[in-house]
Amino acid sequence: MEKSSVKVTIMGAEYALKSDVDPEYVQELATYVDQKMHKLEQSSQVHSALKIAVLTAVNISDELFRLKRKYDQLVEEIESKSQEITENLDTFLNQYSDFLK
Asked: pTM of the predicted model, to two decimals?
């Protein structure tokens, strides 16, 4: 896919972002960041755009890390359950083949 320029507005400032993904997705990301920054600005005493941007980046990074950790835990659980099911199936098939002899 070719890179296209998408105009987005974050904290009242307009940016032209070049990306090779769907422009609607880029807009969705920008809207998410904008909402997070506005929420942080409203709930804190911080009014510096740079500080708001940095704190928002830290908050979004925290969300990402928590989701990655949860994803990794789920993958481990799935692998463990899959192994357990495979072992149970092997046991069953061995018992069944013994029964048929």
From this structure: 0.79
